[in-house]
Design a protein that fits this description.
Layout lengths: L2 H22 L2 H22 L5 H22 L3 H12 L10 H11 L6 H12 L4 H7 L4 H17 L12 H21 L3 H17 L4 H14 L21 H17 L4 H12 L6 H14 L3 H15 L1 H8 L8 H13 L3 H14 L3 H13 L4
Helix pairs in contact: 1-2, 1-3, 1-5, 2-3, 3-4, 5-6, 6-8, 6-9, 7-8, 9-10, 9-11, 10-11, 11-12, 11-13, 12-13, 13-14, 14-15, 15-16, 16-17, 17-18, 18-19
Length: 391
């Protein structure tokens, strides 16, 4: 891809697909037409230059390509093509320039419809709004490309056959549906964070920004965006699985941290807390020069009210260790049923080491190593195991 076309693809792919889905009512038709339009752009823009409105050019070209294809198929008595073409001809003029925010919002909610399984929601969102190829999505989620291709085909087929509506939910249904959309975006981010795949994290942040633009009055949308910014800002410092306390803060992206903290301050002023906002606030505290651990414990107490899970309790125990000492934290950790979670054993190992119980710490590190898949985390655990005295 030329740099101009690549930039336009990253910026406008989701927007163009969303407009074409609205016009034709068919995801496959829209997606293929947009792909064709970008292929034409590769040939034309190098000769004619980048048009004043790349988005309008892509949308117009894609619509023409789709209509030409549907006319050919309709002439062969393809009834589906005839129906899609009729729907497109009845639609008003396609929006070529200007805001198409409602179309993208409709497409996000279509991709994340609750009747689709979570893996399908994530894959569709990355494919249609993120513009990632099937191969890229398959690599990100460690599945064979044919498996991911089948998953995408089934998801699009279900949308078509079940007639899943291409619209924003009613206001009464919006909070429940929005939580599912945010969960998909956060899952994409976490997959990139654990991978580690920086491009997936960046894709999730881009989707988060789009949602914040589309739904500026939803505090949890902003909370998720702030959370992702604050965590991703430390990506360089955590290379190799470096723990937060050992990170070189000079490697942190200060501009990204400042943006995330500014969002958190605005959200605090609104006083409409939610789980993503509280997690963002915790990471905003970590972004200061010195972590205020009592404040972190208090924020985890609030987070447990929204998300009373053992994993949240485990992270709270880590903060408790900094306030009340490792013995108090270990008592909390040992009450949690997380034996199959690698961080449970890693946290226990850290607390046992601080208490001088080295043999137990070694056992806990070995248990964590057996349960850990990510190589950076495995390398960190091996280093900690090697550094632990045998006596």
């Amino acid at each position: 891809m030329s740099a101009d076309v690549e930039h336009a693809f990253r910026a406008e792919h989701g927007r163009a697909v969303a407009v074409l889905v609205r016009v034709f009512g068919d995801i496959d038709v829209a997606e293929e037409a947009v792909q064709e339009a970008f292929a034409v752009a590769l040939e034309r823009w190098s000769v004619d230059g980048v048009p004043p409105s790349p988005a309008g050019w892509i949308i117009t070209t894609a619509r023409r390509k789709a209509i030409d294809r549907l006319r050919r198929e309709a002439s062969r008595e393809d009834r589906h093509a005839q129906a899609v073409l009729l729907a497109a001809q009845q639609d008003g003029p396609v929006e070529e320039v200007g805001p198409v925010q409602d179309d993208r919002l409709r497409l996000i909610f279509t991709c994340c419809h609750p009747s689709l399984g979570m893996p399908a929601r994530v894959a569709l969102t990355l494919r249609l709004l993120g513009g990632l190829s099937t191969a890229e999505i398959a690599r990100a989620f460690l599945v064979p490309e044919p498996t991911m291709a089948q998953r995408l085909v089934r998801a699009k087929g279900k949308i078509r056959h079940a007639k899943i509506p291409y619209r924003v939910p009613r206001e009464a249904d919006l909070p429940e549906r929005l939580s599912g959309v945010l969960a998909v975006v956060y899952l994409i981010f976490n997959q990139g964070y654990v991978g580690p795949r920086a491009e997936l994290c960046e894709e999730a942040i881009r989707l988060g920004r789009a949602l914040a633009t589309l739904m500026p009055d939803e505090p949890e949308v902003w909370g998720l965006l702030a959370l992702m910014l604050l965590v991703h800002a430390r990506r360089e410092a955590r290379a190799g699985g470096v723990l937060l306390r050992d990170q070189d803060r000079r490697l942190w992206d200060r501009a990204m941290i400042d943006e995330g903290q500014a969002i958190v301050r605005r959200l605090l002023a609104r006083n409409q807390p939610g789980p993503y906002q509280v997690q963002a606030a915790i990471n905003a505290v970590h972004g200061e020069g010195v972590t205020d651990w009592p404040q972190v414990v208090a924020l985890y107490d609030q987070l447990l009210m929204f998300t009373p899970t053992p994993v949240v309790a485990l992270h709270r125990a880590v903060a408790v260790a900094e306030v009340s000492g490792p013995e108090a934290a270990l008592a909390l950790v040992d009450e949690l049923a997380l034996e199959r979670y690698h961080l449970f054993h890693a946290v226990r190992a850290e607390l046992l080491t601080r208490l001088g119980r080295r043999a137990e710490a070694r056992q806990a590190l070995q248990a964590a190593l057996e349960l850990t898949e990510g190589e950076p985390e495995r390398a960190l655990l091996r280093d900690r195991l090697a550094a632990l005295p045998t006596s």
